[in-house]
Amino acid sequence: MTEQPSTLPERQHGWQRMRRTRLSRRALIRASGRAGVGAAGLALVGCGDDDDDSAAQVQQQDQPQSVSQAQQQEQQQSQSMQQDQPQQQAQADAQAQQADGQDQPQAAQQQQEVVDLSREGDTDWERSVTVAVPNAVGGLDVQGPGNYTLKWNGPLHFDRLLQYDLVTREIVPNVGNFEWIEDFTALLWHLNPGHAWHDGAPLTAEDIKFSIDRAAGNAAYNESGSYETGVAYIVSAVNGEVSVVDDLTARVPVNTDVTAPGSTGTTLPLVPKHRIEEIGDEAYNREGLASGPFQMVSYEPDIAVRSVRNDNYPIGYENLNRQHRPWVKEVVQSVRPEPVARLAAIQAGEADVAPSLEWELVQEFVNEPGYEVLFDPGCCPHTIFPNTRVPLLEDGSNPYRDIRVRMAMNHAVDVETIYNALGTGREQRAYGIGTRQLGGMQPEQSGPLTMQYDVAMALQLMDAAGYADGFESDFYGTAGFFSATDQIALSVQQYLDEVGIRTNLQLDPLPDFRARMAQLDVPGLHYYFTNQSPDPFQMINAEVSIGGTLTVAEYPDSGIQELVEAQRSEFDPEQRRARLNELAQLIYTNASWLFLYETIGTGIMRDDLEWDMKGNARDYGGLWGIRPLLT
Amino acid sequence: MGANGLWTIFLSRLLQGMLVVFLVVSIVFLVSRAARDPIEYLTTDETTEEEKELLREQFGLSGPLGKQYVDFLVNAVQLDLGNSFISDLPAMEEVLNRASKTLQLGVAALLFSLVLGIPLGIIAALRRASPSDWFARLLAVLGQATPNFWLGLMLIFFFAVQLDWFPTGGSGGIEHIVLPTITLGLLTSAAAMRLTRSRMIDVMNTDFVRTARAKGLRESTIIWRHALRHAILPVATILGIQVGRLIAGTVIVEQVFAWPGIGRLMLHTITVGDFPVMIAGILVISSAIVVANILVDLSYPIIDPRIRAGGQ
User: Fold this and answer.
1) Is residue B77 packed enough to be buried (19+ CB in 10 Å), middle (13-18) or exposed (0-12)?
2) What predicted TM-score, i.e. pTM, was given to this entire model?
3) Is the CB of residue A414 less than 8 Å away from at least one CB of chain B?
């Protein structure tokens, strides 16, 4: 076992013991099932979770050498970290380590494993694939309230103007392209010719105008259209009338960059003008009509959605999926709300894919013949935001305004151990403002991960900041949003307690938590998530920019806000990328937040399928990437 | 009891039921609004307060709670509970579209519980302290002690995954309803079995049963024609109460078996904050429970001739 440089290497935290004794549902079911109903009570009392034990062993064994080296280096530097200007010191350390070429070899290897799933076999183009999904409710109007985010409908059937390519990590054409005109005050959207709605009508510039106007509520036929917050961004972005230049070109006056990843160009779903005007909003909500890679055949709310490949869909554009038609001939999304029932559906042969299952349920299928475990690297960096806006202590001070305290927090928490125990072990530490696993800011681009687990360092920093005796703070988190968030919060609480940050943990459902955070004046720590898109465009607005809806961690004198404004007004992609790199580095070296890790979603599918998810499951046409293999 | 008496009972129960439904829906409305801002479910991180206010106005969530409540009542009387925040379809339509599924499951579970519970209770009563009595009592204890959620998963594991006799979930043919029916009905059947057993034991020791035997009536006639009629009245009462439990149980059972009924819809609406549909669901469910209890009350004179004759 790799020696740990921590001052408390042998200590087993309470949360780890808790994890070891926790029963997984699957283990419970199997044990109880085999023993029969009469033995269920015995199973409840007596059976342990071998899988969790193995996970705990992994956490003892899998500490990467590079992490240890980094910790040793930081220990050597610990004396100097108590100087008067720790931020500059941290930046110097970061640069020094970057010069050493230090990176995360294990993480890189894991990333490679995640991406490289390709196996031999020809495509079975006639295959129907059944996907067990948690739910399928809602109307069919993709611009309707709540309907926009329905993964079973929007991403599969509807088109957007542009797409973020998860391979090239660039904005690429989808059904059209754009050009800036009039000194970046307007866009010309060019539709690709030959694109058609599923009823055969051509997709035209009138549809673009209609879709934007409808989403923005600017049209007489839909005066209340501005409700949809997912596309509401365009309401403020479009500052004039959208005009049709010709059949395939529309002019859109804007006051900001709507072609940035995650913004309007990549998120606004297109709806058919001719059909909605013909039958009205309400009927369209029941019927739906789209132009995407799959065409809906039938929809039984909360039972099943049946779609077939749109064989007339244009291909050949420069993006991930457009190089081929969807491989699957028919996709049936069969609803199984309960995760264990989704797993059972796979085992019983009723489903081929179940993309959203907890690691706890699928980990024993890793080497199981006939199954392939899915690792979806596309989700959210877990981050804890300290509120620096309002006083925390009774004397009116706020320890979180001191960078030494924030650095101490980051040194206090053993992030790798947490995700090895509670996650898949393939996670990566959160860094900066992007989702690293989807091409967001990488330490190699902006600076290395300097704040490693080191309790001695954390205690020294707390002492230097004048908080040798620690302080008390509220700590708010969410329950039931992502897997294990409650356990992660508990573990962080115990780690912080080790260095004197005594927290009162309160876990709430996400809406309650977010409403509290949005008040901006609730002191303490707020355990939330940064963006899940490769580009941090949206989260910068919401969580970094001063005045953002959730920006509780404000650092007005750090230079962060200046970089926020700089990237916001930068229309050149390369230049903007450079500003974002600077911003990511500054946010990290400023220890602006407590950086935890990026989660890995897991699922399971039959091994005669191939699906390199690339985070695509929660983005455009994720099921497009499923490839049935001839067996 | 004549027709007038029945009408009196019916109208009395109907008024009580309407009051119950009104109170239930009002409490749910006020508590849900007071506890949480539904807009938080519909917005993203970037949604500004101004945009949230726009949404509140659009969905009728702005203004004082009292005014919202009055508006809600005025519309509710016309069965207009607004549109779903999620689908933008009428909330009552969303619920009623699923009512038939929940009704199917509820009726099947009720029949299952009667078919299993009453005969087992009779057998247990007639063969006290025999292995069949012990078996029936064990089944009753297990039925009452086993959580729906766990039982459902067990049935899926054995009968769908291992034996491949039934599908793991969904709806469609008769095979889809078997496992959810057993899961949902076992608790009620256990209650029916225990009550039938204890009542039958009492009744079988009464004078009129001894008299019937002395008259030389066949045992089956005594049991089915005379004793059971006396024993079944409390069972009917309990079943009326159990209808509420059955409907409550559908929330879990429908979730486990992907049965597209009101129960699952309710769980979903609570999760995503779709309050109009949630209120509509509560309205339908509470009304169903009230109706079921009225039917049970009206069934007393039919089951027990003494009530019919004496107006008791």
Assistant:
1) exposed
2) 0.77
3) no
